[in-house]
From TrEMBL, chain B:
<protein>
    <recommendedName>
        <fullName>CidA/LrgA family protein</fullName>
    </recommendedName>
</protein>
<dbReference type="InterPro" id="IPR005538">
    <property type="entry name" value="LrgA/CidA"/>
</dbReference>
<feature type="transmembrane region" description="Helical">
    <location>
        <begin position="31"/>
        <end position="51"/>
    </location>
</feature>
<keyword id="KW-0812">Transmembrane</keyword>
<dbReference type="GO" id="GO:0005886">
    <property type="term" value="C:plasma membrane"/>
</dbReference>
<feature type="transmembrane region" description="Helical">
    <location>
        <begin position="63"/>
        <end position="84"/>
    </location>
</feature>
<dbReference type="Pfam" id="PF03788">
    <property type="entry name" value="LrgA"/>
</dbReference>
<keyword id="KW-1133">Transmembrane helix</keyword>
<feature type="transmembrane region" description="Helical">
    <location>
        <begin position="90"/>
        <end position="111"/>
    </location>
</feature>
<keyword id="KW-0472">Membrane</keyword>
<keyword id="KW-1003">Cell membrane</keyword>
Length: 234, 128
């Protein structure tokens, strides 16, 4: 029973919080945030360890792989729009990826966080399974990265509407790239609530941002460290 | 009921494709995750009309509609880092918050500017 309790508990808590979000349609009640708080509270009250919980809850994490594959379907359905606007979409994502990696490393170093935390922050802007792989590659701690990835999305969910309003971003293309590059899969599910086009652009952005990061981070992170060291010595 | 069976069967198909993706990754020895190969494989097969949209559509919508649920267990992982969060949590939060706002600003601004430019050039509007 304990074996499968993490899985059942997560699904139950999620079902309840999702229903709650449907009535109270407000970002702070996003099921990812309310489920997290409720589950942490439950685990803490019953003195359950994360290891015990994750024995079966990790089945859900495993489903992220087929879910990533599932993005092929909306991509295929909206491919004509993507092909037509490839330049705007790809430029936005590329600029975002460079910003994500460099600002994370520069800010974290300037705040004197330890090297393993700095490197775990570097891939924080992309989807969990790929971010964990990149973290391993650049000398971070994959599990820590998984937590930073979620924090990124939670902050992103709150920040996105404000950024969109302040910058007067009206195009569905720009809203899509903003959500997908800034808040990966969780941002994408929010973008689908705005519209099918926004959601599809967001899922494409999430995938491309992950691929760009996969290539750029292993080259860029050591370069950023070298640059910082050089300037601190000066 | 039939919809559920169909959905479950299609999710199994997607799991199969992600396993195929893992296999491709292992053969090619790349750091690119298997799920990306699985995605490209499904996309290519759809494009070449080897497989049909209806074969996967229900399962895919089911997974994507419940995507947030799949992230919950990794989020709960935060409880393993209680000490780190007590000591460095505020700074980590600041890094993530500032960096996320920067990423969203630069990404959104770049795409918005370029799409406005194209709109002026071609006189077409994608939105009103």
């Amino acid at each position: 029973m304990v074996m499968i309790s993490g899985f059942i508990l997560t699904v139950l808590v999620y079902a309840v919080t999702k229903r709650m979000y449907r009535t109270l349609h407000f970002v702070l009640f996003s099921p990812i945030l309310t489920s997290l708080l409720l589950l942490v509270f439950i685990l803490a009250s019953f003195h359950l360890s994360y290891r015990t919980y994750n024995q079966s809850a990790s089945w859900l994490t495993d489903l992220l792989k087929p879910a990533t594959v599932a993005f092929a379907i909306p991509l295929y359905k909206h491919f004509h729009i993507l092909r037509k606007h490839a330049a705007e979409i790809v430029s936005g994502i590329a600029a975002g990826v460079v910003t994500a990696i460099s600002s994370s490393v520069l800010l974290a170093t300037s705040m004197h966080l330890q090297a393993s935390v700095v490197n775990s922050l570097a891939p924080r802007s992309i989807t969990t399974p790929i971010a964990m792989d990149v973290a391993r590659e650049v000398g971070g701690v994959p599990v820590m990265t998984a937590v930073f990835v979620i924090l990124t999305a939670l902050i992103g969910l709150l920040a996105a509407p404000v950024v969109i309003r302040l910058l007067h971003i009206r195009s569905p293309l720009a809203q899509g790239t903003l959500y997908g590059t800034g808040a990966h899969g969780i941002g994408t599910s929010r973008a689908f609530e705005i519209g099918g086009l926004e959601g599809t652009i967001s899922s494409l952005s999430m995938i491309l941002a992950a691929l760009f990061t996969l290539v750029l981070a292993p080259l860029g992170v050591p370069l950023l460290h070298q640059w910082l060291e050089f300037h601190i010595r000066m | 009921m039939l919809k559920w069976v169909q959905g479950a069967y299609q999710v199994l198909l997607l799991i199969l494709f992600s396993a195929l993706g893992d296999l491709i990754k292992r053969i090619l020895h790349t750091p690119i995750p298997g799920s990306i190969f699985g995605l490209l494989l499904v996309f290519t097969l759809l494009f070449l009309k080897v497989i049909r949209l209806e074969w996967l559509e229900t399962g895919a919508s089911f997974l994507l509609a419940n995507l947030l649920l799949l992230f919950v267990p990794s989020a709960v992982g935060i409880i393993q880092y209680q000490h780190l969060m007590e000591a460095e949590g505020v700074r980590i939060f600041l890094v993530i918050a500032i960096s996320t706002v920067l990423v969203m600003t630069i990404t959104g601004w770049t795409t918005e500017r370029l799409s406005r430019k194209r709109e002026q050039k071609q006189g077409l509007r994608l939105w009103s």
